[in-house]
Amino acid sequence: MTEHSTDHPTPALYVKIAVLLAVLTAIEVALYYVNRAIELGVFNFVLLLALALLKFLIVIGWYMHLRYEKKMLSRFFATGFVIAMFCYGIVLGTFGVLAITRS
Amino acid sequence: MTELVHAHDEHESTGIENRKLGMWAFLSSEFLFFGALISNYLLYSNRPFADSVVPAEVYDIPFTSVSSFVLLMSSLTMVLAHNALTRHDQNATGTWLMATAMLGALFLGGQVYEFRTFIVHDGLKLTSNPAASAFFFLTGFHGTHVAIGVIMLLSLWGMSRRVGSLSERHGMNLELVGLYWHFVDIIWIVIFTVVYLLSTPV
């Protein structure tokens, strides 16, 4: 195999990553309940999105092996993501939906 | 990935096998598909609808959290199946593929239960209001993707029962199905956060 690095993670590392993903999910759920008890406002919104983004990057980086692949694939994949964020960001902003931070 | 697994790969001028490049292009385009459905939900989720319940009022967060955990763990079993294939361990490959399919089926079962609860007990139907329609449309399409993934996993499992078939001829197939499966997982990561955890009852 010459197209990308052969230094893929070991099964032990995959399990550690799964544990990390589970912990991050638990933190997300805990934040949801904390926000219901104590108003966290924008902080809750930003933190939950940051945790989701972190989980997202971990899965594509290690489980989908994107960090071991050629950079071209990352750019390819990121293009769709960026276009989607741009287009739908405009739509949601236009209709004032970014008020999802309210509670 | 070892030489043997992808012994029959065709490398083009990009240095990346065509089918793999095609799968990444497809997954990239799926961001636009799911982005539209998530945006559609967000457009209606915080609006009040007279005399009808909205999805955010009936979410069962503990139940959905467990479903999310199940899908996350299926990503682990999927990547372990891929790893086993690189080690030419056909038995382990088949076992992890079946485990991934079962976890996917469990997630789907949870979604059916959730839909049934919403419709029968909570009175949240597909036509209750635009927010409900958007919710069922979004999560239903994600569930359809999971179902397609389960079918592909079971097909691969069937192939893995024939000794050597996956490592010799279908190694790339498993990698492509794995990419698809992990993508379904990352879309759920976004849906779980944006649709469930960040939705606020009006």
Structure commentary:
- The complex is a heterodimer of chains A (103) and B (202).
- With 103 residues, chain A is mostly helical.
- Chain A contains three helices and no strands.
- The termini of chain A are far apart.
- The relative contact order of chain A is 0.12.
- Chain B has 202 residues and is an all-alpha fold.
- Chain B has a single domain, classed as Four Helix Bundle (Hemerythrin (Met), subunit A).
- The termini of chain B are far apart.
- At the A-B interface, helix 1, helix 2 and helix 3 of A face helix 1, helix 2 and helix 6 of B.
Main features:
heterodimer, A: mainly alpha, 0% strand, flat, B: mainly alpha, Four Helix Bundle (Hemerythrin (Met), subunit A)
Mean pLDDT of chain A: 87
What is the correct CATH architecture of chain B?
Up-down Bundle
Extended strand count of chain B: 0
Poorly predicted ranges of chain B (pLDDT <50, ≥5 residues)? Answer: 1-5
Note the total helix count of chain A: 3
Helix vs. strand class of chain A: mainly alpha
Mean pLDDT of chain B: 89
**Distance between termini of chain B?**
51 Å
Poorly predicted runs of 5 or more residues of chain A: 1-5
Q: How would you spell out the order of helices and strands of chain A?
A: HHH
Radius of gyration of chain B: 19 Å
Structural class of chain B: mainly alpha
Helix content of chain B: over 70%
N→C terminal distance of chain A: 52 Å
Write the element-wise H/E pattern of chain B from the N-terminal end onward: HHHHHH
Class of chain B in CATH? Mainly Alpha
Oligomer designation: heterodimer
Strand content of chain A: under 5%
Q: In summary, what is this structure?
A:
The complex is a heterodimer of chains A (103) and B (202). Chain A is mainly α and 103 residues long.
Task: Please write out the topology.
The complex is a heterodimer of chains A (103) and B (202).
Chain A: H1 11-37, H2 42-63, H3 71-94
Helix pairs in contact in A: 1-2
Chain B: H1 18-45, H2 61-86, H3 90-121, H4 130-160, H5 165-168, H6 171-197
Helix pairs in contact in B: 1-4, 1-6, 2-3, 2-6, 3-4, 4-6
